[in-house]
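FYI - complex with pterin cytosine dinucleotide, inputs then prediction.
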Amino acid sequence: MSQIIGIGASPLRKEDLRFVSGRGHYVADIKRPGMTAGVFLRSPHAHARIKAIDSTAAQAMPGVLAVFTGADLKAANVGGLPCGWGITGKDGKPMKEPPHPPLAQEKVRHVGDAVAFVVAESAEQARAAAEAIVVDFEVLPAVSGVLEALRPGAPMLFDDVPGNLCCDWELGDAVATKQAFAKAAHVAHVSLVNNRLVGNPMEPRAAVAEYEPTTGQYTLWTTSQFPHVVRLLMGSAVLSIPQHKLRVVAPDVGGGFGVKQFHYAEEAVVTWAAAKVGRPVKWVCERSEGFISDAHGRDHVTEAELALDETGKFLGIRVKTLANMGGYLSTFGPNIPTNLYAPLLSGVYTIPAIYCEVKVVFTNTVPVDAYRGAGRPEATFVVERLVDVAAMEMGIDKVEIRRRNMIPKEAYPYQTPVIVQYDSGDPAGCLAGAIDSADVAGFAARKQASLAKGKLRGMGFSTYIEACGLAPSRIAGRLGARGGLYESATVRVHPTGHVTVLIGTHNHGQGHETTFAQIVSEKLGVPFANVDIVFGDTDKVQFGMGTYGSRSLAVGGSALARASDKVITKGKKIAAHLLEADEQDVDFSAGVFAIAGTDRKKTFEEVALAAYVPHDYPLEILEPGLEEQAYYDPVNFTYPGGAHIAEVEIDPETGVVSLEKYTAVDDVGTVINPMIVEGQLHGGIAQGIGQALFENCVYDDESGQLLSGSFMDYCMPRADSVPSMKISTHSTICTHTPLGSKGCGEVGTIGSPAAVTNAVVDALAHLGITHIDMPASPNRIWRLIQNAMPGQ
Ligand code: MCN
């Protein structure tokens, strides 16, 4: 591959060679001299006071080196885990942020809360010792649902958080929305639950830490999507380790889906313990342990209304959401159901008035934070369910009602009533493409064919928009968040013209080693094979905010494009010197610096060599070397959008859903690598199908036990649950990113839950059914059918 492979090409992924040949290097693969193993003892209770912990027997067991509890961490002044990005309530006051000790002190607040950490020579010895620790718990009443947690008299998780209310938050114009509803000809209403999900990346979380006493240097290898932020939060807030003495490395990471974008207690405890024990410590999460200690996603209870005039034009939307935060605030937790949710309630529609209230609530469950899509699938689900209900109730065709209210292509940039301004988009174009590709015209015949087999067939539409590329500091500030999220890139050109990129994003499945190399190959005109991408190591990469919120291309890629431009600018200076010309006369294209209108030129490689072997440089204007760095703080989010159409067939005898067809047309701006974008969409849609039809995190109301804590009870979508999909793009160019790209990493999870649920409801609509909560399991569907047709 000694050629330029630039933007728009689909080379095979560079990183796959090491993965398919078994040479990926994950945290669990790390071996350090003298390494020990750590195991956490976790609470079996959802809510309990810790009266005493007796670890005498455990400490005396074979191979055991230490047993640590919350009291030890407290005595050592270890701090609590910070919630990295806070929110501000209606009253202008900051949210309640109660302490979150890495090992529980005094109380446990969810099943799985870590109580003690055992370090031993082997994991088996540590596990046996953990079982020998005697914890005297005084079990307290627990509460797992948001409605119950807000009721007067509900068990209180924190003494200084009355009513378990972390924050009462709002966005939009309450008065204008009330007025809009007052003049409505029709109001559509939905009560819905956005089901709690567990991320379940293929590689469970893990951490290895070591400490070098002679230099005071700590190293933590962790399964993280943002190693620099872990260094910042853990080093400054939890363990008080100076940043230059803490190296955080996130090597190959086997999927994250949001779950690995938080600073977790285990990272801090393992790092602290390594110094205490004086030997490296490794902890690898078990799958069942992950179910009760990885942050969960979603979990909203929502009442929503859409006001329409007599022609079906939208006048206003009003939403009340209760968002479950679990037992503590995770790093981004309260931001997800607020700042990432409410600003998307305009969808792709012109809705003059919007008002959203969110109560952010503590319960005795695992902390909730971002999971692929994070707030945006929840918003899309609310809007797209409301639109379908309104269409059904008003007798308007579901496509027609969408078309009537869509923001026209010419109306961009479009300012919504909820802060965000969409820069570009063509929702009607995406919908038209999807209708064509899904053969909507042939649906009636397919429905008849299904009926002839005794099956019910339904088709569901979802048109969506996403705000991604987190996060412009200007907008984050207006939303009351603590800060925005820029990104950085260094382009290091070696004397031979080979290029190493150091970037602050983290590749854990998204193909950055390929797509970022394509960007450099295109910009600098260097062979694709000559570009390597380095990430995930705080000692190598300057700084970075990591990967989540589909930000890597829109923010990291923009920093990379800018750093590449700086390299070209410097290269022109060098070429001008070498060619004895004026810098302004030097053009750069496809790897060649040339003087316009002449045959005088220098290749990129010649300029790179000259940068490091300078000859007679005018040093006052030209430093040797060819390495440039750029930081990029986006001016706006990017707004991918699209239209998804799902077609289901339901067996009324059993309630089993078969997803027959899935069509997606998405607008992700300039596409760097079509194959990777398709793969991202594929994976995202599969996860959305999982939420819509299969996955559900169920807690026992009384005991707060997680009832779906293993793959026996938590139903993941499998290959045979997902049809062959028709995926294509219909791009409008982002007006503010240097490459014109928008994110694509989450769009699949955003469009699909509503499309699939709307299809299920469509199949059941003749029975008077207007809504079903996710997951639309056979049991739920069967019950709805039975209730609609008693005795059948
Ligand atoms: N891309 C492109 N053209 C575009 C947009 C993106 O070629 N117009 C490419 C990018 O260059 C990158 C990939 O598509 O290689 C995804 O880019 P982007 O949308 O910037 O998303 P991120 O790289 O920031 O990835 C984050 C996103 C999120 S938030 C979750 S969650 C998620 C996801 O990506 N988790 C994943 N995709 C995942 N894929 C895998 N395999 N594993 C995960 O854990």
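The chain has three domains: 16-22+485-632, 31-140+202-255+260-291, 296-471+636-788. Residues 507 and 547 are 7 Å apart (CA to CA).
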